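Final report, closing paragraph on structural work. Over the funding period we assembled a curated collection of sequence-structure pairs, and we close with a single example.
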Amino acid sequence: MKAFLAFLTIDLKLARRNRAVLFFNYLFPLIFFFAFGFAFGRFGSGILLVVTMVTTIGILGTGFFGAGMRAVQEREENILRRYKVTPITPVPLLCASIAMGVILYLPTVGLMLFLAHSIFGMLYPPNLFSLIAFVCLGVAAFRAFGLIIAAVVNSSQEGNILIQIIYMPMLFLSGATFPLSFMPDWLKLVTQFIPASYLVTGMSGILQRGETIAQNSQSVFALVVTLLVALFIATKLFRWEKEEKLRPSAKLWVLVVLLPFFLLGGYQVWSRQELTKSKIIERDLRRGHNWLIQNARIFVGNGKVIESGSVLIKQGKIVEIYEGAAPDAKTLNADLIEAAGKTVLPGLIDVHVHLGASGGFPDDMTKFDPSKASERALESYLYCGTTAVRSVGDRLDYMLKLRAKFGTGETLGTELLFCGPLFTTEGGHGTEYAKFMPEAMRASYNAQFVRTPASADEGRKEVDDLAAQHVDAIKGVLEAGVPGYSFNRMDVEILRSVVDEAHAKNLPVAIHTGSGKDVIDAVALGTDSVEHGSFIDEIPDATIAEMKAKNIAYDPTLSVAEGFTSFAKGDTTLLKRSLVQQVTPKDLLSGTEKAATSDQFKALREGLSHYPMSMEIGGRNLLKAWHAGVLLVTGSDAGNFLVLHGPTVQHEVELWVAAGIPTDVALQAATYNAAKLLRADSRIGTIETGKEATLLIVDGNPLQDVRALSSISTVFMKGERVTRTELFEQR
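Its predicted structure, as stored:
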C-alpha cells in the first residue's frame, strides 16, 4: 500500500506538469463538449446525448493516450528505470496509474455536468452515485487497456500506431461520435464487438434513462473483465527499460483482452439485448426534444377550444400552453412548428379493436402472419393519429409480446392496452372462431383467446390469473345471437363473479352486448362500459338512465355495423378512403376487394345480409345515450369486415356526426372520455400542462368539417415528432 500511495503521489505531481495529460483529460473533452453542445444540445435531451458522447470520448482518451502513451514515454525517457532499483513489483505502479487517471478525470465529468446544467438547462442526474461509479469503472478499465498496449510495444511510434488502430474504431463505431441509429443494421451488429459500445450503452442508460449501475450489469461485467484481464497481462509483460524488447508476436496479447468482447458480441448478435436497449435510448432522446407548436387552434379535449394558441413541449411533456401570442421559439430553446390554419388535438383513442384479425382477406392466406399483421396495425394507428387502442379480445400471448415491444419504445407505434381473453361460455360468442381451425391448434387457441368458467369460483380464479399478468381490463360477453346464428349465453351469476373480482383487483370491465336485454343485464352487473349496445332493438330509457347514474360508458361501435352491411352488399367504398389506402398492405386491399365481389364468398355475404344489424337503431341508441348524459367513447371493432386498422376513429366520429351527435361531443368522446375509460386521463386525453405530449395536428378545422380529422399534418407520440413515412420500415 505504501508503494501504491507513493507512486500515486508522484504520478499526480508529474501529471500537473505534463501538458499532454492535461490536454487529454480536460481540454480535449471540453472541445468536443462545446462543439457538440451548441450543435445538438440546445433543444432538450440532445444535451444528454452530448454529455454521454463526450464523457466516453474523454474516457477513451485518458485510457489510450493518458495511460498507454504516457507509460511508453516514461519507459523511453528512463523514468521507469529509476524505479527498478527499488524492491517493488509493477503492480503498485500500474494500479497507481489507473487510480491517478480516475482522480484526474472526475473533475472533468463534474465540470461538464455543471456546464450542461448552466448553459443548456440539463437537469442534474438523479442517480449521481451510479454515474460516478460507472465513470470510475470505465476510466479504470480503459486505462488498464492502455497499459497493456504500452506493455507490448517497443517504441512511441509503435504505440501510436497500435493505439490508433484500436482507438479509431472505438471512437466511431461505439456510438461515441455517431449515434447507432445513423448506422445500417449490419454495422450495428459489428458495434456489439466494440468494447467502447458497452461504455456508451451503460452511460446512456444511467444518464439518459435514470437507470442505476445495477441495471447495467452487462456493461459493468464487460468493464470489470477488461480491467482484471488487462491489468494481469500488463503486469506479466511489464518492462522497466526500453532496451528490453518483446517479439512482434507479443502484440497478440491485446487480442486476449478483447476476447471477452468477442464472446459478448456473439451473444448480443444472437440476443440483440444491447441493440434493443440502444433503440429505446434513442427513442427517449427523440421524445426529449423541445418543440413549440405555434398559432394553432387548440381542441383541449375537455370541452374547451382555444382559437389561437401555442403549445410548448419539453422532455415529452406539455409544459406550457399560450393563449394568443407565444414567446419566440429560440428564447425557449425549442424548434418551431408553424400551425396557422391548423388544429391541435389530443391523440385519438379507439377503445375497441381486435388486432388478431385484419378486417379483410389477404390475397394469399398462406403468407399471412398474424404477429406481423398486429405490429403493422399498431404502426398504422399511429400513422393515422390514433395514439392509443384497447384490444378487447385477442390472444393473450400476442398481446403480452406486443405490449413489451411497443410499450418500451423498442418499436414505434400506438400505445396498446388490452383485456386479454374473452369471458364467455361453452358455445358462446367468441368460441365460434376456433371451429375453423385444425383440431391440433384449437386447444392452444382457445387457451389464449377465451375463458369459459363453469362456476363463480373458477371465474374469480381466472380473473386473478389475468390480473397477475397485468392485463388492463376484463371483458365479458352477453349475447344469445339471432335465429339461424345463435350462441349459448353466459350465465349472468358467473359473469357477476367475474365483474366483482375484476373490480376487487381494480380492473375495469367491458361487456359485449347484442340486444337491449343484454345491455340491461350488463348495466345491472355494474360493468364499466357497454360495448356495441344493440343494433336490433332500442335500449330502454330506464337502462340508459341507470348507465348515467352508474357512470357507465357507452361504446356504440357504429363502424362494425356499417362494415357488416357494406360487405354483405358487396360495397367496397370503405376501402377507397385515402388513409385506408395509405396504411393497408396492397395484398390485403386487393384480396378484400375480391372477397366482397367474387362468387367465392357469395354464401358468406348472403348469410351476413340476413343478420339483423341496423345502423339506424344503433344511431338512435347513441342519441338516447347522449341526450341522457351518458359518458360516450369511441370504439370501432376493427378487425371485423371492412373495418381495417388505422383510421378507425376518424370514420367512427364521422358516423356519429351523421347520426346527429355534435362534432365537439364526438371529438371529446375520442379523446378525454376514452382516456377516462382507460384510466389514463391523468396523462393523455387532453392538452394540459404536465400531460404527455401525445398530440395530433390536422389541416383545417374538424369542428366545422369533421372530414378534416383525416387531413393529418403531424403526429406527436410522447413528445416525439413521428416520421410517419418511416413507421412501416422499422422491421
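The chain has a mean pLDDT of 88. The longest strand covers residues 305-314. We thank the funder for supporting this effort.
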